[in-house]
Structure formats: structure tokens, C-alpha cells
Write the C-alpha cells for this entry.
Amino acid sequence: MPVLFILATLALDAIGYGLIMPVMPDLLREVTGGDLAGAALWGGVLTGGFAVMQFLCGPVIGNLSDRFGRRPVLLGSLAVLTGDYVVLALAASVWLILAGRLVTGAASSTFGTASAYLADISTPQQRAQRFGLIGAAYGIGFVLGPALGGLLAQYGIRAPFVAAAVIAGANLLFGLLVVRETLAPAHRRRFEWRRANPFGAFRAIGRLPGLGRFLVIYTAYEFAFTVYPVIWAYYAIARFGWTPGQVGLSLALYGVGFALVQGVLIRPALRLLGRGGTIALGLAAAVVSFAFLIGIENGTLALAMVPVSTLSGLVMPALRAEMTDRVAPSQQGELQGALASLHAFGMIAAPLIYTRVFALFTGATAILDLPGMVFAIPSVLSLIALLLLWRVRFERSAP
């Protein structure tokens, strides 16, 4: 049951985020009295603010869970999220919505704590598979969230926020009933602000033997895969002439495939290839799929590449399991919080780079009409990550 709670929490975090996406443009136009372009600008501010809060708060919450335990941190964040969604459902000004999204970003920075909880209750042989389930839960949540939000929007633009509050509240009650503390008092450590800020956490984790290289691989992987949420919709329209419906269908197919890879395929891959081989296969698939998208002009062929692209989902469960095995129980929250901050950093920095490169190679003023050139960046990053695996000794190469 505790594993089910963690997976439900992560899936519902993703659903709660996706629920409000379809109604945000209309809500922002309502509260600002402006047009769609103005709403888009505010939407960018809200998205950036959300990512910044996750970057700043991931290590803080992870370190708090190393000090006070996983249970109070997880349940406390759900309580804050429940109240925050209620505030957002009633918000009548854009500034209150901005404040609410900042609070949501901070309170939902529990990915690291949830991962640390699973690490606490899992044997080394179980960790990679269970981290795969985390990815699957997120994938399912991101597929279901926008779909449910679109359906609920017919009952009003505030309805998805009410639904998100109900979902978070129900999961809080579930957690109160089934979640036990997993971090023994003997394994807890003093909270220190110098380690709880993102840069301090990176330094502390990077000093541990063998983790520096893995952090570089993790960062390269996260930055590479941010290209999909940032660019895919614009690329598909510019290259293939797809409609929004076709873009949504392609993203749903990718999300389902990613969930299947991380939830089902990860176990046989680990058994046959070990952790090192599993990571290498996923990175090789990423190099090939990104490179393929650079020059492709046929949308059907792009969809045919989805199974290869989703094999890259093998990387993260095996990589997180390997890093988890290299730190002490008292540092699990710190490690997972640092990884959550690296993910958030990618969400902040990658859009600035990817959108600029896409603009340089798209439209009448392009230096070369090749929208797919933007995928050269993640292809090279994936190749660098693959080369960094050379001669790495894995703690437990097979379960």
C-alpha cells in the first residue's frame, strides 16, 4: 500500500498539473481582461515561476525529509497543495494566480522525497524497477491530466482546479491511513541551509565517490529530453503541417510508450543487460531518434520512430538506482532533491535555447529552412552521456 500511495501521489501531481493546462488561457484572459497574446505572456511567467520554485525548493524539501522523515514532508505537501488549488479555483486576480502557482511549484517539489521513500523500502535489486514505476506513473498522469481537464472545462474554467483540490485531498486522506515512516531516527541528520540550497546540494552530492560523472549524465539526459515539451508542437506544425489534434495524439502515443517502457520493459532489460547496458541502450536509442528527426519530412515516419524514442525511458530508472546505491540512507532525500532541481533547471534553461535555435532554422528569415536542426542539440547531448559511460564500474550491474 505505501508503494501504491507514492505512485498515486506522483501520478496525481502530474494529473493536477495537466488538468489546468486546457483552461489556463481562458482563465488568464478572464482575470486580466486582455487578449490571447497577453494571456500567453502571463502563461510563460507562470510556467517559469513554477519551474524556478521547483529548482529552489527541491533540495530544501529533500533535506527536510532527511531531518524530519519522509511521512510528514509528503503529507504536509499534499495538505498545502489541496488548499492551494482551492485558492486558485477562487482567484480573481492574475497576481493571486501567480502566487498560487509559485506555492504549487514549491509544494509539488516532493518528487525527490517520494523517490527517497521508495529507496528506503526497496532492496538494491528492486530500486531500478520501482524507479521505472515512478516514470510510468508520471507518464500516465501527463496523458490523463490534459484529457480530464478538457472534459471538465465544459463545466466552467474553474472546474479543473476544484477537481485538482479534490484529488489532492483524497490522496492526503489515503496517505494518512497507509503511510508509515521509513527513515529511522538513527539515519536522520541535521538540517543545514548550506546543503539545502541547490548549489550546495550539487557540491555535496558531487563530492561523493563516482557520483560526479553520473550527475553529468543525468543533467545531459534531462536537458536533452526537455526538447519534447518545449518544441514538439511547433516542430510538428512547421514540418508536417499537423493540426493541434494530431500533435496531441502524437504526444499521447509517446506518453503511453514511455510508461510501458518504464513500467514493463525495464525489468527484462535489467535482467538481460544489467544497469550499465540498460542505460547504454536507452542513450543509444535517444541518439538515433533525435538524429532521425533532424531531416525527416514525413509525419508518418516520425510516428514510426516513437517505439525507438521511448526506449530512452530505460535510462532514468537504472541511472537513479545506481546513484541511490552510492549514497547513505541519511542522504537519500538530499540526492533525490538535487536531482529534482536539475530537472527543474532543465525546464528553465532549455526553453531559452531550444526556442532560439528553432527560430533560427524556421520561417522566411531562417538561415536554413530546417526546423529539425533543433534536435541536433539533444542528439549530441545524448551521445556525450553515452560516451561518459565508458569504463564506468557499476555497483550492481544486474539484479
In short: The two ends are 23 Å apart (CA to CA). DSSP finds 18 helices and no strands in the chain. The chain has two domains: 1-179, 204-391. The CA atoms of residues 282 and 306 lie 13 Å apart.
